[in-house]
Design a protein that fits this description.
The structure holds two protein chains of two kinds.
Chain A (H helix, E strand, L loop, with lengths): L4 E3 L2 E4 L5 E6 L6 E7 L5 E8 L2 E5 L7 E4 L6 E5 L8 E8 L6 E2 L3 E5 L1
Chain B lengths: L3 E4 L2 E5 L4 E7 L4 E9 L5 E8 L4 E4 L2 E6 L4 E6 L8 E9 L7 E3 L3 E6 L1
Parallel strand pairs in B: 2-11
Antiparallel strand pairs in B: 1-3, 3-8, 4-5, 4-9, 6-7, 7-8, 9-10, 9-11
The chains are: A mainly beta, B mainly beta.
């Protein structure tokens, strides 16, 4: 069964460093998302992406964040200068229209 | 602004009992509602999707109902097993988008004791 994959599973970085989180969505899906979950808190939406551009972004998704679909399979989230409060589990999701969103296993980001 | 609430926050039942998990939302103009399971430190596994035009959706031991007008959904898990221990999340998609973002509740943490 097709699934969303994410790499790495765990990323440790120093404050101020850039990180890139990678996702491979399900192959026939057209809509892609990033969400995050800070420990003990709700899953919260960051950004949605369709047709090679951002469809919607939340207040969290400021200039430090960017997304890209560099080729036909990968979908990336870049954080330019990480802060302590960026420590969270980051989930990638994908969907076709009208259907359920499928989530990847997540990348745990720890900022020291 | 949409608010999604799940009560109770935690639930413990003996094996074999039926589970009833509640989800409420403040804006009834939703496109659909999705139930997920989350194991500790893991990703989100989609359990059921219920469209706004549906009243009910079933998959195996799982049954989800939706009452859009009252802003409520209930997930029933029949004959619970220790393997059902996990956190269950509900999430709604707003009414204007077939592909829009999901807004999540905080989840109900379930423990099924043998």
């Amino acid at each position: 069964e097709p699934e969303v994959t994410q790499t790495p599973s765990h990323q440790v970085t120093q404050m101020g460093q850039e990180v890139i989180l990678r996702c491979v969505p399900i192959s026939n899906h057209l809509y892609f998302y990033w969400y995050r979950q800070i420990l003990g808190q709700k899953v919260e939406f960051l950004v949605s992406f369709y047709n090679n551009e951002i469809s919607e972004k939340s207040e969290i998704f400021d200039d430090q964040f960017s997304v890209e679909r560099p080729d036909g399979s990968n979908f990336t989230l870049k954080i330019r200068s990480t802060k302590l409060e960026d420590s969270a589990m980051y989930f990638c999701a994908s969907t076709r229209a009208y259907n359920e969103q499928f989530f990847g296993p997540g990348t745990r980001l720890t900022v020291l | 602004k949409q608010e999604v609430t799940q009560i109770p926050a935690a639930l413990s039942v003996p094996e074999g009992e039926n589970l009833v998990l509640n989800c409420s939302f403040t804006d009834s103009a939703i496109y659909n509602l999705q139930w997920f399971r989350q194991d500790p430190g893991k990703g989100l596994t989609s359990l059921l999707l219920i469209q706004s035009s549906q009243r009910e959706q079933t998959s195996g031991r799982l049954n989800a109902s939706l009452d859009k007008s009252s802003g409520r959904s209930t997930l029933y898990i029949a004959a619970s097993q220790p393997g059902d221990s996990a956190t269950y999340l509900c999430a709604v998609r707003r009414g204007t988008d077939s592909w829009g973002k999901l807004q999540f509740g905080a989840g109900t943490q379930v423990v099924v004791t043998p």
